[in-house]
# Entry
Amino acid sequence: MNTQVAKNTVVTLDYKVTDPDGELVDAGQEPLVYLHGGYDDLFPMIEEALQDKKIGETVAVKMQPDEAFGEYDADLIEIEPRKDFPRELQVGMQFEGLPEDGHEDDALIYRVTEIADDRVVLDGNHPLAGMALIFTCTVIAVRPASAEEIAHGHVHDGDEDC
# Structure
């Protein structure tokens, strides 16, 4: 059995994400399982670093904001009337919406970042936008992908009806 990361293998990673100062951003509580080979399951830089790695090998990839979750875009901040939201609104809640200049295809997830008097501040940026990140991972399993997984372009967990 091939235990090397290659195109059309399903790879399981233990991972963590830190900022350049070593502050933990994502502890990787659950292993990350993805279909290797350009299926957009993982950032391309990380896939590239993992190519040909074997079980037990570790890689660390430093990504600039434009290689990860993008630059922070102040235009994605929206201020809306409080009356347009549910009564039990809390900072951190998420809503799907369109940017002011957006089309249906541009739907974003907006996070509530502030509630003040009769206004709600929404942020359409990814929470990690604008941050350089270091993604450190260890390959813990590799298996050949099934024909169905390759056809669908993602990993199946056994009880999927795709």
Observations:
- The chain has a mean pLDDT of 89.
- The chain has two domains: 9-68+130-152, 74-123.
